[in-house]
Design goal:
about 10% strand, mainly alpha, 11 helices
Length: about 230
């Protein structure tokens, strides 16, 4: 790729002072080529990979290269309509794409999400629509991605917020989220956003953590409805 310039800098006599160009070329190569950690490059070992190619990342993370290419294209990490470019020539930052792949391994599809968070399909769609639970990747039929996936860490973070709600079984009439949405005219996602922000008092009953265990006292709901005119939209 760098021809005689690289040969001169890599294999030239050490007697001749090559100046700063050697380090400049080394930095350029590391920033634009998929060089593996531990490789000797222009006299020094590479301590950390800076770039991956579709080929090297698919090997490292055991994701099929065709699927990986589609995902990276959908995320804007490689150019669109690049199917004719060799897999080892499509290069991108290593750290960001490795994290993306780690999120994809063990990810949960939208159809599986109700079981994971203890909600109905409609409630899950609302949480997703309100960006309470954000997807790793969206549907993109034009590039061949047909499902929506959610990272395990995103789901766990959401459930930890539900777990942080106080456990209680207080006296007084209490409602689950289905009733709360009907009485407020708000979506599940909007109600949950108010609960997380502390604008609507809620608690959870003992059992497996999930939105089906969340409860709101009738008195708290009445207070919330009375204050709706001064509440923010989100």
């Amino acid at each position: 790729m760098y021809g005689r310039l690289f040969e001169w800098l890599a294999y030239g006599t050490p007697i001749v002072d090559q100046g700063p160009i050697k380090e400049l070329l080394r930095e350029h190569i590391l920033n634009h080529t998929a060089i593996e950690t531990g490789t000797f490059l222009l006299g020094r070992k590479v301590s950390k990979r800076r770039c991956h190619s579709v080929y090297s990342l698919s090997l490292a993370k055991k994701i099929h290269p065709k699927r990986l290419r589609k995902i990276l294209e959908c995320k804007g990490m490689i150019p669109a309509n690049c199917s004719d470019v060799a897999l080892n020539l499509l290069v991108f930052p290593a750290e960001e794409t490795e994290k993306l792949c780690d999120d994809l391994v063990g990810s949960v599809s939208l159809s599986q999400l109700p079981l994971e968070i203890g909600g109905s399909r409609t409630q899950v769609q609302s949480l997703y629509g309100e960006d309470i639970i954000k997807a790793i990747i969206e549907r993109a039929p034009d590039v061949g991605i047909g499902r929506i996936d959610f990272a395990r860490v995103v789901i766990d973070n959401f459930l930890s917020k539900m777990e942080d709600l106080p456990i209680g079984n207080p006296s007084g009439e209490m409602h689950d989220l289905t009733v709360v949405t009907k009485r407020t005219g708000m979506s599940t996602g909007r109600i949950i956003s108010h609960i997380i922000a502390g604008r609507l008092s809620a608690f959870r009953i003992e059992g497996r953590i999930g939105i089906n265990m969340v409860r709101v006292l009738s008195s708290a709901l009445c207070e919330f409805k009375a204050n709706r005119s001064v509440l923010p939209d989100t």
